[in-house]
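Students often ask why we bother encoding 3D structure as a string. The short answer is that it lets us treat folding as translation between two languages. Here is a chain of 137 residues written in the first language.
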Amino acid sequence: MQIQVHCDNHTEGSARLVEWVTDSVTSKLGRFDENLTRIVVHINDENGEKAGAHDKRCQIEARPKGQQPISVSHKADSINLAVDGAVEKLHASLTSLFGKLRSKRAGLQTAPATADPDVQDALMEEDFDEDEQARNV
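And here it is in the second language, the structure alphabet:
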């Protein structure tokens, strides 16, 4: 899984910030490593030079193999909180996506194979006859 971190002009994209974001994403989403090709993190300060509540935004886009990309975003008062919130949202989205896919695959594997219609009719007749005999006893 490749992780890319992008910061806007108003956010200092230091090596330490990039390393922290990469570590945060890897620690929380590492279990999905086999199923993801790339994660792109965008960090913005929406107000630029001005201060304001919830002006830091983190958007994360994940690229699951064979699926449409998933994008989440989170706004907070600090970059750390914005990244943490976005990572949590992405974790929940990926858990849901891969859980549904796993359930779908398990359902396909356990689904009974369709038998020849004549064989199914014969089996249903046998079951019916057994039920009739049980009722008459």
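Translate back mentally: The CA atoms of residues 29 and 78 lie 21 Å apart. Keep this in mind for the problem set.
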